[in-house]
Design goal:
603 residues, 6-stranded antiparallel sheet, Rossmann fold, alpha+beta, 42% helix, 4 domains, 27 helices, globular, Glutamine Phosphoribosylpyrophosphate, subunit 1, domain 1
């Protein structure tokens, strides 16, 4: 688990800004740093050592000197690929899992992308051809951003590192900002900066002589091929044995974020089933708040399995004092409130762990969300209101009157465009798919890589912790998406097959509780004196005044004072103001200190 940055120049290479980019990625790789400057390409890498602790430093170079690699992530099937490549005569020099990318590309070219199972983003230079290949894993677990200009192509694991490579901060992207407000995050390739793109999940980019010459998807959900099976539970058991065994590979101990929900509970059972000892688990909740949690369930599970268990119960000040860190770590504009507890869990885990399992992906792969059980009639009427969307994830966070009152002119000018990527995706899914499959696929294509995996990757890496998510493995995702609807959910329950399988090796009562979800008590925080202080900060903030109408901001503040129901919308504004301060008005190369976000904006 690491960070990477690079430049592929069109003319003379100037690599003097590469050290600044690597400094901005130090949190992703506190164990080492390296670079390569060959011809008109500069590659940089920061390392968090997980496999081959002594010999896995990067950049990795082929013995012939032709290929150079910098990679971020883990290749879970590296042992199987290594055996295959050794049989073909590949001259391995390290035990690093990432070296299979280098050796595989040397022998198989682009086809290596079809063989990799893991979470990764990498840049691979072919010195002889003058080419650089950028690629990102199928589900988008690891990030990669890039920008092309007349000087060449710049790329990096995080926006803050890419900005450090550029001569100036690009102008802001109105559409991405509106998507952040309406959908919680920018969609698809969009980023908050004009001219800066995400490499999509499962996408690759070929650069030659400082120009992008080819861009393609090496894997998409549309490649799904459903398979008939006599015993789905046995088939899932066989699949998960392979996937989980590969996910266990590590030269350092692995802990677990234990929420008490189905997915993390299953992961705990698998850890015990496959022989992991001295398991460290971490849970967080808000027992004195207006929202529920599953701490009681998590504690019972930890006791049952005999784990070393740590429970965090933060107060409002504990959470809000980490908000500047969350905004800095998220890097991209992303306002999921669950980022705050995830950052706190990562902070706690970092004292003893470099790697943790986490349960992301189970709801998307096995239809666990209640929104998948929305009635067909309701979705039909929504599809009439929002054509092309299938009536799913079609309504934004702002209703018409609130949007007109709050959004500034530049945001209102693009208001009709914000859901276009969602509609395009929905219409691209095969006609033979069921509505449930399309809903799952839309979340797997957007909400997962653009939100949940951003949260998991950035919050953990901010504290130098690697997150492994077996349910986001593309083999599991493909299997779950292709499964018959009736095996996944009915009107009352989701993840039916997952629970049925888990009960073959765990007590049934571990899954008896109704899904409660995980909610952050945002509305509890903005009351009384703290709400008044927030009002003063937002009303006087230049970035807020530039993009939003003061009357709309004041209206939200009054509504929160009356009903305590619009805390999320106020957090949206506060996080934008903090993001603007950290990334536009100034440069912040390292994790900010814990502190009052309102005081930071008042400086």
């Amino acid at each position: 688990m690491c960070g990477l940055a690079g430049i592929a120049a069109r003319g003379e290479l100037s690599a003097d800004r590469l050290p600044f980019a690597l400094a901005a990625l130090q949190h992703r790789g506190p164990d080492g740093q390296g670079d390569s400057i060959e011809q008109r390409v500069a590659l940089g890498h920061t390392r968090l050592s997980i496999i081959d602790l002594e010999g896995g430093a990067q950049p990795l170079r082929s013995p012939c000197g032709r290929y150079v690699l910098v990679a971020n992530g883990e290749i879970y099937n590296h042992l199987e690929l290594r055996s295959e490549l050794l049989a073909l005569g590949a001259p391995f020099q390290t035990g690093s899992d990432c070296e299979v990318i280098l050796q595989g590309y040397r022998l198989w070219g682009r086809d290596i992308l079809d063989r990799l199972e893991g979470m990764y983003a990498f840049a691979l230079q072919d010195i002889e051809s003058g080419e650089v290949l950028l690629a990102r894993d199928p589900l988008g677990m690891k990030p990669l951003y890039w920008s092309e200009s007349r000087d060449g192509v710049h790329f990096a694991s995080e926006l803050k590192a890419l900005l450090a490579l550029l001569p100036s901060t690009p102008v802001l992207n109105s559409l991405a900002l509106l998507q952040y407000i309406e959908a919680q995050h920018p969609l698809s390739r969009n980023t908050p900066f004009e001219g800066v793109q995400r490499l999509l999940a499962g996408e690759a980019l070929l650069i030659r002589d400082g120009r992008c010459v080819d861009q393609w998807r090496h894997w998409t959900l549309n490649q799904l091929v459903s398979a008939e099976m006599e015993d789905p539970v046995a088939a899932l058991d066989e699949l998960m044995e392979v996937v989980f065994t590969q996910h266990q590979r590590s030269d350092v101990p692995i802990g677990l974020f234990l929420s008490g929900g189905v997915d993390s509970t299953i992961l705990l059972g698998l850890m015990r089933r496959y022989g992991m000892e001295n398991i460290h688990t971490f849970s967080l909740g808000f027992p004195d708040s207006s929202v529920g949690d599953e701490l009681d369930v998590a504690t019972r599970l930890a006791t049952h399995f005999g784990t070393v268990h740590r429970v965090i119960t933060p107060k409002a000040d504990d959470m809000l004092s980490r908000l500047p860190q969350v905004v800095w770590a998220a890097d991209d504009l992303m306002r999921d409130p669950a980022s705050l507890p995830t950052l706190l869990l990562a902070e706690q885990a970092s004292h003893t762990m470099k790697v943790v399992f986490s349960g992301e992906g189970g709801d998307e792969s096995f239809a666990g969300y209640g929104r998948y059980r929305t009635g067909a009639l309701e979705r039909f009427f929504k599809s009439l209101l929002f054509p092309g969307t299938g009536g799913f994830r079609s309504r934004g966070d702002l209703r018409g009157a609130v949007a007109r009152q709050l959004l500034g002119d530049r945001l209102m000018a693009v208001r009709g465009e914000w859901r276009s990527e969602l509609a395009t995706s929905w219409q691209s899914f095969p006609a033979r798919w069921t509505s449930l499959q399309k809903m799952q696929a839309l979340d797997l294509q957007h909400a997962l890589p653009d939100n949940l995996l951003v949260k998991a990757d950035r919050m953990l890496m901010a504290h130098g912790v690697e997150g492994r998510m077996p349910f986001v493995d593309r083999r599991v995702v493909s299997w779950g998406l292709g499964l018959a609807d009736a095996l996944k959910c009915d009107q009352r329950e989701g993840k039916k097959i997952l629970k049925a399988w888990a009960q073959t090796f765990m007590p049934a009562d571990h899954f008896a509780a109704k899904k409660r979800g995980f909610y952050v008590p945002v509305n509890d925080w903005w009351q009384g004196n703290r709400l008044e202080a927030l009002g003063r900060v937002l009303s006087g903030n230049d970035a807020i005044r530039e993009w939003f109408k003061p009357a709309g901001v004041d209206s939200l503040l009054r509504e929160q004072g009356r009903s305590h129901r619009v805390g999320r919308q106020l957090m949206t504004l506060l996080q934008f103001a903090l993001w603007h301060r950290l990334f536009v008005e100034s440069s912040t190369p390292s994790l900010p200190e814990v502190g009052d976000p309102l005081a930071l904006l008042s400086q």
